[in-house]
Amino acid sequence: MDQSQLQQQQEEAVPAAVPDGVSEPTPAADAPAPVSYNDLFPALPDSGIEAGGPTPGQTNPWAQRMRVGTSSVTQVFHVPTEERKSDSKFGEDSSYTRCGDIMQKTGTNIEVSTGRDGSLTFMISGKQEQVLRAKRHILENFQTQATQSITIPKEHHRFILGRGGQRLRDLETQTATKIQVPGQADPSDKITVAGIKEGIEKAIHELQMISDEQSKQAYEKLEVPKKYHPFICGAHNENITRMQNENPGIRINMPPLSVMKDELTITGEKEGVMRAKQQILAIYEEMQRTCTCVSVEVVKAQHKYLIGPRGNNIAEILQKTGVFVEMPPTDSTSDTITLRGPQDKLGQALTMVYDKANSVVMTEVNAPVWCHKYIIGKKGADIKAITSDIPKVHVEFDTSSSKVKIEGPKEDVEKARERIAARAKELEDSMCVEELDIPTKYHKHIIGKAGANINRIKAEHGVYVSIPENEASTIVKIEGPKEGVLGAKAELLDMKNKMENEKERDIIIESRFHRQIIGTKGENITQIRQQFDQVQIVFPRQGEKSDVVKIRGPKDMVDQSYKHLQKLVKGLMESGYQERVSIYKQHHKFIIGKGGVNIRKIRDETNTRIDLPDESSESSEIVITGRKEDVLAARDRIQKIQNELDNIIQKDINVPSKFHNSIIGPGGRLIQSIMEECGGVQIKFPSADSKSDKSHRQVGGRRRPAPPRHALALELGTDRVTIRGPKDDVEKAEGILTELANEKTLNGHTAEVRAKHEHHRFLIGKNGSKIEALRTGTGTRIVFPSESDKDCEIITIMGKKEDVQRAKEQLEKLIKDLDQTVMAEMSVDPKHHRHFVSRRAEVLREIKAQFGGVDVSFPRSGSDSHTVSLKGAKECVEAAKQRIQEIVDGLRKDGCDRFGSIVRCDRMRDGALEVEFRKSEEAAKALDATRFVFSEGRASGRKLVSLSLTVEPHRSKNSSRGVINCFDLRNESQVTIEVEIPQKHHGTVMGARGMHVQKITQNHQVQIKFPDRADPNALPPAQNGSEEPEAGPRRCDLIRVTGPEAACLAARDALLALVPITIEVEVPFDYHRFIIGQKGKGVRDMMRNFDVNISIPPAEELSNVIRITGTPDKLDDAREGLLQRVKELDAEKADRELRSFTLTMRVNPDYHPKIIGRKGAVISKIRLDHEVNVQFPQKDSEEPDLITITGYEEKAHAAEAAIRQIVGDLESQSREELRIDPRVHARIIGGRGKNIRAIMNEFQVDVRFPRYDDPEPDLVVITGAEDAVFECAERLRNLEEEYMQDVVEREEMNAHVRGPRDTGYNGESTERTDSAEEFPSFGDAANRTPVVWGPRR
């Protein structure tokens, strides 16, 4: 127990510190009255103290007769410096936040103050329960927590918990601790208490009390006033220890001094309990008879010296004099202490109290804060030298002030004070400190690159320069010798003045021009820097996507260089216009021409730079750079070449914009698959910021390309989708998009599910069996991400809402099963362990990658354990176990376990080795030879040596040699065979990155060596000097296989099975491009899926033969897959022909808007109901009344009938034409068409105003029922008459205001009917300026 803890334990021992609600035990009636300090040592008459007056330690009995109850209490407690948490420096934002949170949680008011010694004092006000909870939270946050365990019998735990755990919660609140009781399943009987030490003592006492009450042993509870407890315990608890030693098996539970309880308990054997009880009562009666008390004043600052480390001084006084010293609480300002004990010992105890209190003094020395580190010295060397001969002195440096505190014996303190003061004066005379106010933005330049500038200043002037790390501070400090400080100050001020005259300016230059401005090896930028030699020009780092170039230097020169760079950039922008043109990959060679003649001609004639993608790149975009008009000319010429090569057309179709995102699909995957399915056509959706049907717009003089295919189309009204490509492909894509739009209307729901990428293969199942069953059962489309997607975990489900929800639930259940980690074990013979862990655990890594990241753990090397542990998803673990067992079974077959272990191995005279096996006869018979070659192992560091081994049946009589396991019989029985495969097939046999050979090597445990590449046309070498070459296979065709004979033969068969053969399949030439797919993706997918090579003849050959090359076992599947694709294309062609039935009808253009409907509602319904595409003529069409319907024949006729019905209804309506002055059209229409819509709704008619470019600008057409048309016409005429009066008045007023100056009148009307102010359009009102009307009548 340290000093502060003893103080806290004693704080409530003083009567004045008794908390509310706990009455102090009253002494027995026959106890002598306490003698005060004033009785023993009367004060002088002028002291102002009344003799015999009440002391601070006494309690006024009248104060306890009546107490007014209140629901609010206030509690003050103290957290000493040494017990504060290291991260609880009060005053920081986090501390205030924590206090605020506690007040909010508990509904209390908390006030905090910090003492000079760093201690914290908290005052909490509120209801009793709230105050206790707040105190607990504060102690957890600001006071160091400790942990202590107590053993309580298991059967007593339920009494500690109480009903519903309420008793435990109350105990935690009262003691401000956290009590952990083990659960019923836990056999432990230890209860852990965490909190501050005072709270832990209280809690342990209460727990012990509860346990003792429930104990079956003897239990005694004694009521002894609290003030006599120290005498019963004795110094250092010696009385309690002695009684427990004299009476083994008993336990005396004394409440800590900080717990204001009189009761103490004794448990144990009955006889021992009674003896201990008698001894305690004897001490109590003796002290009650002889004990008296006296109060004295001791300066508060000296109390800690009186207590001593861990309370040793108080214990020493109690041991020597039998007098206990009661100290006031640490948070009290009282200087009064109370001495309690025999009256004849009080004088001796009082002397010891003053000796202990005055044994240590404290003083302070003034020294500037900057001097402190020099007084301390490097690693404390100087302060150690000062205090080396006075070790009892403690020196503390206060960084917040210029004070140095010194504590210790009086003489030693004086010596230390003189030395420190002398050192401080010496430092002040020889050194100084200067502070400079330098803006933060200059600090990095003062420091320099890697601190070069600041280190140079420090070295030259021998000073220390402190630059603040906080950006909010601008003060730079210089410390050191006076001359050095002045020199450094002057240099820093000079740097500051120079930087203040500098200027930094940013210029925006597109990153694509940076390389041109810098030039080859920086030649261009070097010339610019030489021209403006005092300017720094900094470009963004490579890879940093920034267009900002920084210029720094003198103001005038920065401005000059800025203008120079602007001029340079302007020239680059004029010649840097860029256009990207998508050209089919197969046409690139025709654009390049033979020997590049075409592309060079285009470059030279248009003066542009044309960049084509690499052959290995999947991109088909050609980039053209140069002046805008030149770039456009080059683009047209390139597109012309493509159009001539193929029947390329471009067609626009209307697809409602609300379906664009779902048709594009997550990451553009769905639209990409459609383009590939339709032979690689280009499908462009309108951009998100499109305001019209165009998908591109001009930005900054440079044509910005359309966004990616998966860009979002958010604006309403941008329904136009552009399809470009061969005519048949465009028609097919058009049909698919139309079908999708119709389907999305009914099945437009989408959901996403996340699953680890390595688990996808288990969700899909073998050959897609699982996912196909899920798709069929729920009727949804499920799209898995590709490896190139950024987020490889998202699985997309599309379909009807209820189907999507059902599919999502089933998928989530499968994913949950896969995510559940299980542990499993299996048995593997230790002799096979090396196969799995050798070569850096190559086999284990393959198993982990193949089976969803399952972890496989083998025993350590040298262990005899057979247990192998597996951890991962359940299905993955089971699959991995099966694979490991397959490998082990293969090792057993390839090994020579049937031969047994080697018993004897002796070297013969002829140098051979004689080996005896456990089953020698069987081994010799199986090997069928007397000598064979084997290789010694490298595990012991020996070299690889080839030896002859004699194998003969031999029985050893001496069995004491034991078994010598030093050979691997799989190596001892190795053979080498040669397999002849033509060299041109070696690459196919090896597979991608040697995949096939690695698989054969692992499956058959053999070594395979391919020959070096040689000229395939070279002849075999001649032998024995003959001119004729030796007949037989060439060396470059021979593959060597080494291993056990059976394994070599199996590996040979596996290699021969990989030799490819070629077959031919008849496929109509028209289908070749669909099989190839966009950018060759279709044929690549087939080759990858069937692991074959498919060769499609060039287009100019017009051949129907497709060649398939691959291994025999895969050719049949590839042929069937190709023929199946042909069947699909036949079906698509037939369906496309049926769906491409076209029907035309002529409808008065005036009825077109009504057929289309508001925002396309009417025509969209017709399209969806009849599954057709309805196209209206363009504005400038030669046949403005022609409507085209495309779809199945019967559905096209049904759509035609629906349109005819609408037209019939419209023709039955009345139509009237009015002539209304164009000058009042805007007022009749109103803001955003508000007025005219109200009129149309009122009369249920349609009113059409002319456009600004119509030949008859005053013609207004009204359509509707005859009576309604007549009434509406009358309303419009009345409005025209009213508004025209205003127009005339305004014109007359403007004429008078203008005066006689020339108005430019030439006899014609000055009104402009194309003015946006006079005649605003219905839409785009956001861009229209307000119209100022004249005065009203």
Automatic annotation (TrEMBL):
<protein>
    <submittedName>
        <fullName>Vigilin</fullName>
    </submittedName>
</protein>
<keyword id="KW-0694">RNA-binding</keyword>
<keyword id="KW-0509">mRNA transport</keyword>
<keyword id="KW-0175">Coiled coil</keyword>
<feature type="coiled-coil region">
    <location>
        <begin position="797"/>
        <end position="824"/>
    </location>
</feature>
<keyword id="KW-0813">Transport</keyword>
<dbReference type="InterPro" id="IPR004087">
    <property type="entry name" value="KH_dom"/>
</dbReference>
<keyword id="KW-0677">Repeat</keyword>
<dbReference type="GO" id="GO:0051028">
    <property type="term" value="P:mRNA transport"/>
</dbReference>
<feature type="region of interest" description="Disordered">
    <location>
        <begin position="685"/>
        <end position="707"/>
    </location>
</feature>
<dbReference type="InterPro" id="IPR036612">
    <property type="entry name" value="KH_dom_type_1_sf"/>
</dbReference>
<dbReference type="InterPro" id="IPR057778">
    <property type="entry name" value="KH_Vigilin_N"/>
</dbReference>
<feature type="region of interest" description="Disordered">
    <location>
        <begin position="1012"/>
        <end position="1033"/>
    </location>
</feature>
<dbReference type="GO" id="GO:0003729">
    <property type="term" value="F:mRNA binding"/>
</dbReference>
<dbReference type="GO" id="GO:0010468">
    <property type="term" value="P:regulation of gene expression"/>
</dbReference>
<dbReference type="Pfam" id="PF00013">
    <property type="entry name" value="KH_1"/>
</dbReference>
<dbReference type="InterPro" id="IPR000504">
    <property type="entry name" value="RRM_dom"/>
</dbReference>
<keyword id="KW-0963">Cytoplasm</keyword>
<dbReference type="Pfam" id="PF24668">
    <property type="entry name" value="KH_Vigilin"/>
</dbReference>
<feature type="region of interest" description="Disordered">
    <location>
        <begin position="1297"/>
        <end position="1337"/>
    </location>
</feature>
<feature type="compositionally biased region" description="Low complexity">
    <location>
        <begin position="1"/>
        <end position="10"/>
    </location>
</feature>
<feature type="domain" description="RRM">
    <location>
        <begin position="866"/>
        <end position="956"/>
    </location>
</feature>
<feature type="region of interest" description="Disordered">
    <location>
        <begin position="1"/>
        <end position="60"/>
    </location>
</feature>
<feature type="compositionally biased region" description="Basic residues">
    <location>
        <begin position="697"/>
        <end position="707"/>
    </location>
</feature>
<dbReference type="InterPro" id="IPR004088">
    <property type="entry name" value="KH_dom_type_1"/>
</dbReference>
<comment type="similarity">
    <text>Belongs to the RRM IMP/VICKZ family.</text>
</comment>
<feature type="coiled-coil region">
    <location>
        <begin position="1262"/>
        <end position="1296"/>
    </location>
</feature>
